[in-house]
Amino acid sequence: NAGVTQTPKFRILKIGQSMTLQCTQDMNHNYMYWYRQDPGMGLKLIYYSVGAGITDKGEVPNGYNVSRSTTEDFPLRLELAAPSQTSVYFCASSYFSGGAGEQFFGPGTRLTVL
Amino acid sequence: EDKVVQSPLSLVVHEGDTVTLNCSYEVTNFRSLLWYKQEKKAPTFLFMLTSSGIEKKSGRLSSILDKKELSSILNITATQTGDSAIYLCAGSNAGGTSYGKLTFGQGTILTVHP
Predict the structure, then answer these.
(1) Dihedral sign for Cα atoms in the order A101, A46, A87, A29
(2) Residues A79-88: pLDDT tens digits?
(3) For the CA atoms of B13, B19, B24, B29, what is the dihedral angle to 10 degrees?
């Protein structure tokens, strides 16, 4: 199993450009998440999904969009990139049992907006 | 709004020292408390605690949850330079539309000198 994979690993965007961060998991997990981590900070939840076709906002959803058409894939779309979106983005997945469960993280995408 | 606070924010010790990291939480419909270790890239799972007063151990690391005090501690004995990392704790929400969400603290940066 590859676990959670993310592409690209690094990206530099100009202000106003758009891009999609890809995330795929091969563990058949129902739950998937997108986080951002700013320097010296913990993880902030952007969006999450409890299954194909179902998504919901996290703490910091503004400027982002997601979709979940399959169990495996959970892409994150940035529209009109801004310098405030410079961060490291992590995708994670989980299989919940009884309302609790470990989240498995991808390797991250380091995004810089100039 | 769910909240998780960690202390101290940073800690510098020498090899062989014992450290205690603290985590307090305010999470509605609380289900579990998770600890992660983050070195250069993605967080890696350490412990998940759901029951108060029961210690979990893995080698030199141990953790315990106190639901009455809404807190948890992570102990590392006989620290090694390889323990240098950011330690993150997160509270799991198991209720309603927030089902499965983790709220992360800001992390404790541990530096172990030889």
Answers:
(1) positive
(2) 899 999 999 9
(3) 130
